[in-house]
Amino acid sequence: MLRIVCYSTQGELTRGRSRITNELVALKEIHLDAEEGTPSTAIREISLMKELKHPNIVRLYDVIHTESKLMLVFEYMDLDLKKYMDSHGDRGALEPAVVRSFMWQLLKGTAFCHDNRVLHRDLKPQNLLINKKGELKLADFGLARAFGIPVNTFSNEVVTLWYRAPDVLLGSRTYSTSIDVWSAGCIMAEMISGIPLFRGRDNNDQLNQIIRILGTPDEATLRRIASESPEVQLRPFPRMTRIPWASLYPKAHPLGRLLLPRCCCTTIVQLALLLQHSTFSTSSFNSTPPADSTALPLFTSTLKS
Q1: Are 44 and 167 in the same domain?
Q2: Which domain holds residue 64?
Q3: Which helix (H) or strand (E) holds 297?
Q4: Options 80, 90, 122, 180, the catalytic residue
Q5: 110 backbone dihedrals φ, ψ, rounded to 5°
């Protein structure tokens, strides 16, 4: 068991150092209810993260259990993607090479989850952590679930509103890996522009904002949702035409504009195909770190040729 010395706090995580290895770790403290015991979200997070070992998923080192609390010991990461965009981007927007590197890592980590039949269900910039090497890793699996295909028993109250897929916004309880892919597409758009793609105030407003950009759902999509989730009451939608991605993001790299519609769509997209996309066709990601010494270097990874 790790023996920890706590010395600062960052949100709900406390930073500590192992007396054995002297390395920094992140501590997530969960207080236990005297009557209800360990929260189901904590049990789920622990059980899944013990199985999910991947370079782009934050590593769970240990679990310390006392009568009053659980302490989850994670590998230490320096900041989340939201803070990175705020501090390193141009008004939040990142350089194309950085977007490409972070998207590659996000999709690799997410694909590993899906290959192991796990949905993250809450992908957003605050749940993507970055270290000084420029490595990006998925974190916070409190809402994650193991899944079968198809899934028809889940709640539709998943994923932070701005990153929530249309199926879920419409109330569908039958969904699969596409909800994580949608969230990844929204994150990519935010890295490109520095602004969240859809910023709804509530479910209906979020859905309306999606329709304004992507156009009215076609009849096939509506029939599929009605068939898979008969409890959903589909309302009439205004007739809207899709706005081209090139108009939304004129300064984005052309390959990025090709990848976005493959993420932000209402059909099931295989991450293996996204990872073979021409956006990631170079042999490696190399970038000279900015002159600002506080900026993080880019992750370098050997990709497919």
Answers
A1: no
A2: 7-75
A3: none
A4: 122
A5: -70, -40
Q: Would you say 121 and 145 are in contact if contact means Cβ atoms under 8 Å apart?
A: yes
Q: Report yes or no on 295 lying in a domain.
A: no
**122 carries an active-site annotation:** yes
| Tokens of residue 189, six digits | 């758009």
Within a domain: 298: no
pLDDT in tens, 181-218: 899 999 999 998 899 999 999 988 998 888 888 888 77
Q: pTM for this one?
A: 0.81
Q: From start to end of the chain, where are the E strands?
A: 4-10, 13-18, 24-31, 60-65, 69-75, 79-80, 118-119, 128-130, 136-138, 145-146
Model confidence pLDDT, tens digit, residues 61-72: 988 888 778 888
Q: Are 158 and 182 in contact (CB under 8 A)?
A: no
Which whole-number Å values give the CA distances from 91 to 84, 186, 251, 252, in the listed order? 11, 17, 14, 15
What residue type is 257 in one-letter code? Answer: R
